[in-house]
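ingest -> validate -> predict -> emit
validate: passed (alphabet ok, no gaps, 607 aa)
predict: started
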Amino acid sequence: MNLRTTLDFLLYDWLAATSLNERERFSDHTRETFDAVLDTCERIAREKYAPFNRLVDTQEPQFDGEKVILPQATHDAHKAYAESGMLSASQDYDIGGMQLPYTVEAAANAFFAMASVSIGSGLLTVGNANLLMKHGNPLQKKVFALNEFSGRWSGTMCLSEPQAGSSLSDVATRALPDGHGSESDPLGPRFRLKGNKMWISSGEHELTENIVHLVLAKIPDENGKLVPGTRGISLFIVPKKMVNVDGELTGERNDVALAGLNHKCGWRGTTNTLLNFGEGKYPVGGEAGAVGYLVGQAGKGLACMFHMMNEARIGVGLAATMLGMAGYEASLDYAKNRPQGRPMGPAGKDPAQPQTRIIEHADVKRMLLAQKSYAEGALALELYCARLVDEQHTAAAEAADDARLLLEVLTPIAKSWPSEWCLEANSLAIQVHGGYGYTRDFPVEQYWRDNRLNMIHEGTHGIQGMDLLGRKVLMEEGKGLKLLANRMNDTMQRATQVPELAAHANALGQALAQVGAATKSAWATGNPTDALANAVPYLQGFGHMILAWIWLDIALTVQPGAASPARTGRLAAMTYFFHYELPKIGAWLNVVSSRDQTCAELPEDAF
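emit:
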């Protein structure tokens, strides 16, 4: 079974993606048009991405004092991706899009993430442009978003700062009105920004003729002071090169300067930068200060940026998933071909017997099955979330609102679960390779290094856990959690009618009850400090419950089918998850339910 076979099953058999074509927005599409998109992306990934994954890992971006130098393979891959139309795949026809369901777009992008996540395929550019389509004024959409969708320009998100990291309330970048008439600039109220942004992916390169930075900054009050907290944060478009209202470059460089390249353990093919805004290296009109155009309302920038961050979180989850899948396929191939050890008989091992391949060893099968259950289950979760995006945008009002709430609850899981457990899959892939796994002769060590970044990308587990337990399961009086429980109960009720699945349905029911009880117990005192002290164990227990549900739902599609290796493998992965993984949630949820303060109350000097 390869990735395409898995995607076809999940898209068409499990999620019934072709039923979306009954909706007006997707009515021009058929299974054939979906397959054509998948065929194209699979081919580009195979030809332009996969062969160069090791190259971009070893030939890191370099700054020659004027520009960032990337391998030619990166330029070729980006050009092929842009020309495929995938940057605007889900956009309207009248702006050059395909009106493709996001479910199919996400599946198609899985090929690129698996072939070389380090080269990248426009995640931030698409998210940047989508944000502007939602919150920008008409000219901002035309000048900036449409040029990003075409691949002419690229985009970034600039949140973190050297002194602030994830603490956005401590953002210190300042934005001041750019003189008389600045409030009526047709590209948006014009400001001058000064500050520093750290960890900016794709912040400087020559892949496109311009880079559109979306920058969080604060506008000082009448006393020149920055408003504390997140209430004062605004969002600005800061192009690398100045443009006019027709989307043409003016020939003037904006005051955005590369201060340095960050060299990470993974994703080495993507430039990661420290950017200085407004230091005067490239004065605009003879004046220091990066020119930026306000998006939306002043002081409401974080709400706008969350539109991009939530998209990016699903994208990070998919990237982590596909790295797990890549490691699984590599270690499966190795296990099938590596002879080592001999079968154990009543008298022990007979050295005269030929060696067995390591895939015949029970423990190697355990590691392979774990990887399969993590990676294929995570892929199903990401595509399920993508389907919720389509439901939110195109379903009838009540169903669309249900999809919105379900997506709110599942997004922290979609980001964090694959980034933890598909990293574990990569660790197991190294283990299957034995000593060779640590060498660069095989790709699995790079997959692990690349995947290690995803636990931090777009918010750590701590941030996602607090978001889930502190906000998502409580929002709208817990309606999202109730909707999720209803979906799970529907799966369980159907599974109890299948003798082979009934025990798993009961186990999932117990897990759901445990999560519900832990949620109530965590908030029993009403004190956020008590409740959130163990937000990450809650996230882990909740995530394992979700993956068990996903696998049981998949099993309901698989179980009635004819016998085949694919059917056997998926049912085994489901069984593995219920027997080996789901029981772990008790330990995680026990400390949540008891509001255990072992970690929170330990004094600093005890470490």
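The CA atoms of residues 20 and 26 lie 7 Å apart.
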